[in-house]
Design goal:
Residues 2-226 form the tRNA methyltransferase TRMD/TRM10-type domain. GO terms for molecular function: tRNA (guanine(37)-N1)-methyltransferase activity. InterPro entries: Alpha/beta_knot_MTases, tRNA_m1G_MeTrfase_C_sf, tRNA_m1G_MeTrfase_TrmD, tRNA_m1G_MTases_N, tRNA_MeTrfase_TRMD/TRM10. This protein is an alpha/beta fold. The protein has 2 domains: 2-155, Alpha/beta knot (3-Layer(aba) Sandwich); 170-231, Trp Operon Repressor, Chain A (Orthogonal Bundle), CATH 1.10.1270.20. It is 35% helix and 19% strand. The protein has a 5-stranded parallel beta sheet, with helices on both faces. A two-stranded antiparallel ribbon has the order 3-4.
Amino acid sequence: MMRIDIITCLPKLLDSFFAQSILKRAQDKQLVEVHVHDLRDFSPFKHRQVDDYAFGGGAGMVLMPEPIDLCIQKLKAERKYDAVVYMTPDGEKFDQKKANSFSLLKNIILLCGHYKGVDERIRQHLITHEWTIGDYVLSGGELAAAVVSDAIIRLIPGVLSDETSALTDSFQDDLLAPPVFTRPAEYKGWKVPDVLLSGHEAEIEKWRTEQALERTKVRRPDLYNKHFSEEG
């Protein structure tokens, strides 16, 4: 069973996310455990303070090192962790390949940034990976941690009812997924491509490959070029 521990100063933001749909079923099946830890529980201060002003001045507050260190050390005393990931706008871009790789791990800690971020000494001494989900800034790392968790958990064998579904998602081969259609075969004069109704599996797969290539070429030429460079 995989275990994901999420450290945040706003734990209630994550309550509903992991209590619905595929993520809830994955936990019910005991394929993954998700534990959310309130950073304020590890504050040494009476009023549960976890942030302070930055040395040198400037706008914004910084998460102090002690509560984060205490939380991480408590978790590490209970089990061995494969990775401690800090969600931060200046991290490495999270992508499908990282999700694939991390879906094979056993225990993961995700640290949610907040305010102006965490004390740099935490990043230097306790963090193994730093990720961002895009070139923009959120109010905190909670949504990013939820996105990363979702992308990883859905790849664990047994989580999806059709395990081949994840293998045909966008980005698995540096390609976008082809168009998809469902019933009815004709709606308001809009028709499903004949090949998809033919029952000819080889022709359908050929069509899907062609469509995936064309869609990627038009919408994400960077991925299109990467796909062929890695094939070569």
